[in-house]
Write a structure and sequence with these properties.
single chain, alpha/beta, TIM Barrel, 4-stranded parallel beta sheet, 17% strand, binds zinc ion
Length: 284
């Protein structure tokens, strides 16, 4: 199961900065963006009427939606009631996504805590399985996107999210390059570093098309490992978007690229321009 995309689409992580919320999708379309990740990170909207109007409005303006599920999800929690609540919470996020027409649900899988990483991974896989079961029972389906996470204490290495995807057709990871860079202690320095990651993703998932990508520049903690905060494109913190765009053009990928910089749609547009310039140069 993958998003069907005929080209790369860009959009912000959340409603745009420069337009009132009720005009968000019209505004994104007007400035040349084609996607958005709805941020349900603190609470999940439930009102069916609201969700259906989001769907209609997004469709009308050609905005492809994904949804970011609540941060408060931890399938590996030592507190059993929290692990159980995580299943319910992710299911409700999936239901909201389905109603608003978002086909991909990004989520952070959780924390290792004192658990062995393999045990935490297995518990997460069981949690995902439960959510898929609930969706089947309810008669709908959206793609589950465990995200590569930015802190070494969080479950969500590249290997782990690929492993989750290999277990279920319904799972396609959200690849967050800034997070990978941060959790690996600043691992993305040049184009070859992106190439190495993309080769692994391609091998693990059997192709690169239809992925949801998160991008921003990112500041590492003082210790040099793990994320401190997201920064704007061109801030100098890195990683560099242009080097990724070169790989995107070379590999002819079709992705939904979500910009997680504090400048949201302004930087999504900046990234689109960088990518398009390279496409032109290539004569594509
Ligand atoms: Zn995230």
């Amino acid at each position: 199961m993958r998003l069907e995309l005929d080209r790369v689409k860009f959009g912000p992580a959340g409603f745009p900065l420069d337009a009132p919320r009720q005009e968000a999708f019209a505004y994104l379309a007007k400035i040349g963006l084609e996607g958005m990740e709805y941020q349900a990170v603190r609470s999940v909207p439930k009102k069916e009427e609201t969700l259906l109007s989001i769907k209609q409005d997004a469709e009308e303006h050609g905005i492809l939606l994904s949804l970011h599920a609540p941060y408060a999800i931890n399938f590996a929690s030592e507190d059993k009631s929290k692990a159980k609540a995580s299943v319910e919470r992710l299911f409700l996020a999936c239901k909201a996504a389905y109603l608003m027409g978002a086909k991909h649900v990004t989520f952070h899988p959780g924390y290792y805590g004192s658990r062995d990483p393999n045990e935490a991974l297995e518990l997460t896989i069981r949690g995902i399985e439960a959510v898929i079961g609930m969706m089947k029972e309810a008669g709908f389906s959206v793609e589950l996107g465990p995200e590569t996470t930015g802190k070494p204490s969080q479950l969500g290495s590249l290997g782990e999210v690929i492993d989750m995807a290999q277990r279920f057709d319904e799972v396609v990871p959200t690849i967050d390059f800034a997070h990978l860079h941060a959790r690996e202690g600043g691992s993305i320095k040049r184009r070859e570093d992106y190439a190495r990651i993309l080769d692994r993703v391609e091998d693990g998932l059997g192709g690169l098309d239809g992925l949801v990508i998160h991008f921003s520049e990112i500041e590492l903690t003082k210790a040099g490992v793990g994320e401190k905060m997201h920064h704007e494109i061109g801030s100098g913190y890195g990683p560099d978007f242009k080097a990724l765009a070169e790989e995107m053009v070379e590999r002819e990928v079709k992705w939904l690229v979500i910009c997680e910089s504090p400048l949201l749609e302004r930087d999504a547009l900046k990234m689109k321009k960088i990518y398009q310039r390279l496409l032109k140069k290539r004569g594509r």
